[in-house]
Structures are given as structure tokens and as C-alpha cells.
Amino acid sequence: MSGTLPISTEGLIDFLLKMNFLTKSRYLLFLSLLSFVFVASCALALSKTDREWLTNATPQKEKTFSPLPVLTKDNSYPVLSAQSALVIDLDSGISLYEKDPDKEVLPASTTKIITALVAMDNFPNDLVIEIKLGKVDGQKMGLVSGEKIKVGDLLYGLLVYSANDAAEALAQAFPGGREAFIKAMNDKAKELHLVKSHFINPVGLDGDGHFTTARDLTRLSEVAMQIPQFAQIVATKEKTVESVGGKIIHKLININELLGKVRGVLGVKTGWTENARENLVTYVDRDGKKVMIVLLGSQDRFGETKELIDWIYDSYTWKEVKYPGAYSP
Questions:
Q1: Domain around 189
Q2: Any catalytic annotation for residue 84?
């Protein structure tokens, strides 16, 4: 019978053993040789496949990502009196400076950032509120009982002049009253994942259960600055608002001393009480390099924030990150 009969590896081994061609030691050697042949064959096959893949692959273009801040100068870090501080590059989320950013502290009037967001969520700008206030402590824009004024004008008083009477007027006008407004503030904090913040008044007066952190305020302020109306108000140096009919005039001057004096500063909010000391949240945009600075419990909020601004833009360089590209079949 002519031709070649196919035979399996097991059959070949069995045949050789029966014919006494393989001893036990030769059997083991034979298995080793078969393993080598198998591995070598697989390697050759894979090598061929790789060559074919590379031949047919399409090179992908180099990808460029947003510039990232890189510390390029060995400048000494600023030494601050502040209890807590945080500086974040907003485009990348990279921290540029930290000092106890998760420490729970008294927010003082930086509270009014979340007061403003709750008011904007619930009131139209042209809604007219009749003022019905009793005694209000602290900074005031001079609202008069019985005065009628628009919500949009109260927001200027709240954020430009840090007016406590504006905060209380907005809270009292809320459906359900002041306590419902405060609940809405804490609901907003949960919605924004401010995990170490709680508020017991719309003004920022000190009290048990009224606290925040630099990290939470950074997150809150970043969200707020994405709202055009909010960003416009906190960037306002001076503003005159009137009651409906124009009988009562309120001239408002922003108490943020850096606004209009330090290049790139566009808000956000000051705060002070005797126990909280000096607080300041600052948004800076220099040549498209945006940072948020939160300084809490400082002895010199304006001086130390300016020092941080100068240090950041002198020490960091924003560099494009390039991915070299890859092949895809």
C-alpha cells in the first residue's frame, strides 16, 4: 500500500517504545525535543503575525493634551499665617499649594457663596422682595423695612458688599422661610459633595455646626464661577442699586482689595469674624492659566493671597503634554 499514513505524537512514542528504540532516559530526551520544536514553531508563527501586523498597521497621530503646571523654579514655599490654604489649577485639578486643606474651620462670609447659589436656584432676578427685617448684626447695605427691591440687586449687595441684611432678606423670602432656606443650603452642599461643610445661617456668623474646609470652598467656588451671573457680580468693583421706584439708593463697593489691583484677579469672596480671622477665596486667570485660591484663618488675607499669586505664576510653568502616538491595525 503506497502513501504516507498520518500518525499522532502519542502513536509515534508508543511505536518507538515497542520497537525498543526508546529507553526511559531517551524517552524523556525525546519529549524535551518535541517541546522545543513546539515552542519554536509558535514563536515563528507569532513573529510572522507581528511582522504582518506592523506592515498593515496605521500610525496614529501624536496627541497633545491640555497644558499641565510644572514646578520649574526651586523657590521656597510661602510661609503663611493662615490655618488652612489650598491652591488648585482649575483645568487639570492639580494642587499647587496646600496647608491643612481638609481642616474644618469657620467660613465667616465666604458662606455667602452658597447663599447666592441657593437664591439663584430658586428666585428669578426680577422678583421683587419686600424687606421685613428685624435687627441684623454685622455688615449691611442699609435695607429699610418696607423697601421693595429686586433679587438681582440683593445679590449684588450679598456678594459685592457682603451685606448680612441682603442674606437675611433672601432667606426670609424663601418658600418655607429662613429655616427652609438653611436646609436648602445644606442640601446644596450635599449635591456638590462638600463632605466637610455644614451651615446654620445664611450670613456666616460663627456657631456650633457652622463650618467648612478649604477643599470644599474650592469646589463650591469653582462651580459658582461657572455661572455667568455669579462671575459677573463678584468681578464688580462698584455698583449702585435702587429700590423699586428709585427712592432708596444703595452704593456698593467691593471689599476685596485685590480686585482691580492684582492682575488676573476676578473675585470671589471675602470673610471675617473675630474667631474665624481673615478668609479669602480668589479666582485668578492670567493668560488662560486659571487657579482658585482659598485662604482661611489668616492674619493678612490680602497680603498672603498676593504672595501666593506671585509665587504660583513665578514658580510654575504650564507645559503641553504630548503622547507619542501608537499603531493600530
A1: 67-318
A2: no
